[in-house]
Amino acid sequence: MYERAGNPVLALEDCGTVLDLDPSSAKARLKRSRILEGEGMYDEALAELCAVQLMFMHDNKDKLRLGVDVGQPPVDQTKMEEVCEKCIPKNFLDASQRKTDYLKQLEKDNVLNLPTAHTIDMFLESFSSYKTWVNESTKDDIQQLSIELARSDITDAERTDLLFRRGRKSAATKKYKEAHADFAQAAQSLNDDATYYLDVIEWLGIYKHLTYNLKDALLFYTRVLEARQKLAETDAGVNSKVADILVKIAGIHMDMADTDAAKVNFDLALKASPSCPDALLHRSNLHLQGQDIKAAHADIEKCLELKPDFLPAVLRQVTLCMHEQNQNGAKELLKKASRMAPGSSDVHIYRGELAFTEGDVVGALKAFEKALECDKSNPNAYVNAALAILNQPPSDGGMPDFIRARDFLEKGIELDPQFQGAYVHLGQLCLTLAQNVSECKEVVDLYDSGMNQSKNDAELKELLRMRIMAQAQYEAASSLGIMS
After folding, report:
1. CATH number of the domain residue 58 falls in
2. Is 168 a member of any domain?
3. Residue range of the domain that includes 59
4. What is the tally of structural domains in the chain?
5. Engineered SS bond to 422: which of 45, 160, 399, 412, CB 3.0-4.6 Å?
6. What is the per-residue pLDDT across 282-308, written as a single tens digit (0 to 9) for each?
7. pTM
8. C-alpha torsion sign, points 37, 456, 429, 413
9. What does the H/E/C string look like for 46-101?
10. 141 assigned to some structural domain
11. Which helix (H) or strand (E) is 289 found in, with range?
12. Which of 421-430 are b and which e, b meaning 16 or more Cβ less than 10 Å from the residue's Cβ?
């Protein structure tokens, strides 16, 4: 009556009276949800829909456990998704502000929010110059460099070079936080007479890139590019370094989802150095994202002609074969990759992913477990192993080993707090395993943590949708008094 009369306040009070007497009244909750949605109170409307759905599941839990058909649930899934989408704008603003506050606190506390060492390794190793600077660092000794830095008569240029060399040595031994400290200190006394003047600036850009501070990374990279282009006017040998920095700039534009700018910079890199394998490797990923498999293949084949021992290129070729469902080609390439890097956990991960595509979940899990044996710091191995466990049919006809899968997902996040996919799967699994309302709230908190670590708006929104649903389910269970 009140709803038809255009009086939502009294209509909601009317629903509240009914629900005080009977919290499980689906009719009152559906009506209340409809009114709340009309008033723009989307989170509350979604919670009411979840309550109706949850009550249906609770009333039929024994039948559901036995696999008995209970018919269609009272609320259509598309309606749930429709209201959830309406919740996003306001919640997105709140989540973005929480993330901003979180990052500001990290900066205030002088915490460097780096990705996992394995992720950094993969980024650095995707450039053919990796082995060159690692080999150059072998002649440096951190203790000796520290002694030289303590000299009282040291010049700014000498300090810059010594700090760079010590930072490079730390980076070569995968001590990335220590390396950053030296590069940052070198920047404070930066002197353009220093041999490694531009290298310091480039590394500062790399660290901005790794922490997803893309605008600042672009500024550092551009500064290096302009200086190297000027040097190349009188020294053609610098062109390879010009190409190298253009590839990094293209990578920034890819992360910004500016594919046109990325393509321009890849083209400029190949114009500066036509034999640059890095440009071909990274441009192949741009082609892959655009579903241009033929162009991606062409780049990778040319890349491997120039640098046959380039492992990242071989693994990219494996990915392309998998996209084309060319399993035999992928297997042959993985044999080649294994010969090139016998102890690589990434090679085993690719082998596991290939087994997954063939429906061999058991073989996939074995490959991921082998990857863990090779490198226990590789978060991808834990997360992929968890997914294999969840998809593996138990031999006794029971349920998958949810606890082991959960432990693996938690370990993946521990190693790499920026692993968005791990938050998605862990949240879903924890909701499945939840025994009480408080555990549903823990999932909400998990998604909040993941959103703070998101690299861009798309990642944040993906977790936000799941967080909105988890919060609505928590509110629904609380209002119904369903504690387990």
Report:
1. 1.25.40
2. no
3. 8-108
4. 1
5. 412
6. 999 999 999 999 999 999 999 999 999
7. 0.88
8. negative
9. HHHHHHHHHHHHHHCHHHHHHCCCCCCCCCCHHHHHHHHHHHHHHHHHHHHHHHHH
10. no
11. helix 277-289
12. bbbbbbbebb
